[in-house]
Amino acid sequence: MGEQKKKRDLIALSSVPLVMTLGNSMLIPVLPEIERELKISSFQVSLIITVYSIVAILLIPVAGYLSDRFGRKIVMVPCLIIAGLGGAVAGWAAWKVQSPFYLILAGRVLQGIGSAGAAPVVIPLIGDMFENNKEVSSGLGLIETANTGGKVLSPIIGAALALFIWFLPFWFIPFFSFISVLLVFFLVKIPKTEKKSQSIKEFVICLRDILKEEGRWLYSIFAIGCLIMFVLFGVLFFLSDILEKIYKIDGVYKGLLLAIPLLALSISSFIAGKKIGDHKKVMKIAIVAGMGLLAISFVALRIQHNLLFLLTFLIFSGIGIGTSLPCLDALITEGVEKEERGTITSFYSSMRFIGVAAGPPAYAFIMNQSEHLVYYVSMGASVIAMFIGLLFIKPTDENEESKETKGKILKMT
């Protein structure tokens, strides 16, 4: 595969997590306006985000299994189309229907179904496309950069679109889903691999055996991924709230400030993906160090948290998270055989979605108790993630492996 072809493939695949992230996160700054326009309660408007996440959490493992059995692209492209249709349903309902709330929810369910089979399939697909682990790590770093880039742009784009028409962010989803479909369909060439012919019963038995044999490090990566997303989205919710309530900053200006720590996360993800190569012990060190930096940031914020101090140390927390994510992706992708890669990485993606869904409501409850408690909980979750990585992830670099260790699950002890 030529260098230019690899770059085109990665750029095309990077559009998938970017579109999926934009399609969800950019609605967050618009939710208060949606609530006013539809004359619904805060709980009802929160369902616009929640139903999307719940559907995705439930269906991501199914999409992983289907991608292992039938192929990554054959699952990803139709799911991108479904996600676009979901956005169109929600946008049309908001535009043309007098009481559109339940149709908007139906559109969000469709979008969740599409997202479940699109973005999470990208991680195992990167592993399929590149035999060289350094290229896999670099590619995953770019994917995490695109994912985080979507989070950086989301609040800015959502707030800017809503300045024209409140439901315009819904129509953004089918527009960019269509672009992503074209990029993936025409540019990404999937290497030919033998498709699995397992029955569901055989699949369940195989999955049980994998988790029984290698569950220790797999569960550790699942847990760290969940904790990272829990802290990230919880803190973003907290930051959004205090910028408006304490510092009286809202609209596009608030979106720009929310983007600052996410930009640090995005840049550090890209650099980490380039630098870690195939050195799995370095990946472990980066995960532990990243979670340590995250914990230290919240210790500092507990001591002092004026606006400048807050944004400065949230930049450090973004660096910690950005350093860790490509390493988690690389360990789980390079550590699993191609035949089970989609299924195992889909469970990892589901755990990350659980963190995304749980963070904002949990932090909303914590904030009602005490602002200081936000820093304690964030620090505690970071420390737990750091010790999980330190104690339970025990990688073996490829040049230290013996032939006997290469089975269904590779490169980990």
- Mean pLDDT rating: 84
Class per helix and strand makeup? mainly alpha
Instruction: Sketch the topology as an H/E string, one letter per element.
Output: HHHHHHHHHHHHHH
- Count of domain modules: 1
Per DSSP, what share of the residues sits in E-state strands of 2 or more residues? Answer: under 5%
In CATH terms, what is the fold-level topology? Growth Hormone, Chain: A
Whole-number radius of gyration? 21 Å
- Number-wise, the strands total 0
Shape designation: globular
Q: How far is the first residue's CA from the last residue's CA?
A: 31 Å
The DSSP helix count reads 14
Which CATH class applies here?
A: Mainly Alpha
The H-level CATH homologous superfamily, spelled out, is: MFS general substrate transporter like domains
Largest sheet: none
Unreliably modeled segments: 399-411
Residues in helix, %? over 70%
Q: Which architecture would the CATH scheme give at its second level? A: Up-down Bundle
InterPro entries: MFS, MFS_dom, MFS_Efflux_Transporters, MFS_trans_sf, Sugar_transporter_CS, Tet-R_TetA/multi-R_MdtG-like
Family: Belongs to the major facilitator superfamily. TCR/Tet family.
GO molecular function: transmembrane transporter activity
Domain Major facilitator superfamily (MFS) profile: 9-397
Outline the structure in words:
Belongs to the major facilitator superfamily. TCR/Tet family. InterPro entries: MFS, MFS_dom, MFS_Efflux_Transporters, MFS_trans_sf, Sugar_transporter_CS, Tet-R_TetA/multi-R_MdtG-like. One of its GO terms (molecular function) is transmembrane transporter activity. This is MFS transporter. It is a multi-pass membrane protein. Residues 399-411 have low confidence and may be disordered. With 413 residues, the protein is an all-alpha fold. It has 14 helices and no strands. The longest helix has 46 residues, at 200-245. Helix 9 runs parallel beside helix 13 (338-369). The protein has helices spanning 3-25, 31-38, 42-70, 72-96, 101-116, 119-129, 133-162, 168-187, 200-245, 251-276, 280-303, 307-334, 338-369, 371-392. The protein has one domain: Growth Hormone, Chain: A (Up-down Bundle). The relative contact order is 0.14. The radius of gyration is 21 Å and the shape is globular.
